[in-house]
Structure formats: C-alpha cells, structure tokens
Design a protein that fits this description.
23% of the residues lie in helices and 36% in strands. By secondary structure, it is an alpha/beta fold. The chain has a single domain (4-134), classed as 3-Layer(aba) Sandwich (Cytidine Deaminase, domain 2). The chain starts with a strand and ends with a strand.
Length: 135
C-alpha cells in the first residue's frame, strides 16, 4: 500500500456528486485503475439502505469485480460515504476492511467538510490516512 492515492479528476468529481444524490444514505462502490492511478468508479447499491452502514451485495460485488477484470483494470479502492459528515473510518469500517491492499475512500456530504474525500489504508485493525493526488 502506498502512502498516496492517485485518482483521475473526473473520477473524483463523480464520487463527490454521488454522495450528494442521496445524502441520507451511505453510498458505496469500487474503484479501479491501472499504473497506480484510479481511473474508474463502479457505483454499487447499498444493500443495507442505511444511513450508518453499507454493504455491497455479493452478486453485485462479483459482477463489478468481473467488469474490472474484463476492462484490464485492477481493484484499487472501495468507497463509501458517512452521512454524518465525519469521514474517518468507523469501528465497523475497520472490522469489515476485507481488502487490506486497497485504499478506502470515505466521502462527506457536508458542504463545510474540511476534506470532503479522505483515503485510508486499513490493515490488521490499524488505519493510516493517505494523501490524495488528483491527476
């Protein structure tokens, strides 16, 4: 895991818009790229339809992973929002970080959020905030 997440500007803008479409419910999805740069987002349905938790249904998760492979991309991140705006990993986020080699991006729908998008490495119960470089 790098100390930095590199992401295409268009992809980041789409993420920021997606969090505002339904700010009362956590949005979620996968992020894929190549050459160390996230170039595509794969929006998913929050199977829990919750304001405080998210889950991507296994069938949808596997469909997106297949699309990523078919596009010759690699899974580089997972994103979701925190409706309360405090976009740092919750205990549940840390407990359910099943992909230790990807970045976890957490979005805030609040207009006054100091950092509307934050990225984290979550491995073995430990979180490290990562810098985000827009390319």
């Amino acid at each position: 895991m790098h100390e930095m997440v590199r992401i295409k500007k268009e992809t980041l803008e789409r993420l920021k818009k997606s969090v505002l479409q339904n700010p009362q419910q956590e949005c979620c999805g996968l992020l894929a790229g190549r050459g160390g740069v996230i170039v595509r987002d794969f929006a998913a349905t929050n199977a829990l339809a919750s304001a405080t938790e998210y889950e991507i249904a296994p069938k949808e998760l596997f469909q997106h992973l297949r699309e990523i492979r078919e596009a010759a991309l690699e899974l580089m991140g997972i994103y979701h929002s925190h409706t309360n705006g405090d976009n740092k990993p919750s205990p549940r986020d840390i407990e359910q970080a099943y992909y230790p080699d990807v970045a976890y991006l957490i979005l805030s729908p609040r207009k006054d959020a100091p950092k509307p998008v934050r990225a984290f490495s979550i491995q073995n119960g430990k979180t490290v905030e990562l810098d985000i470089e827009i390319v």
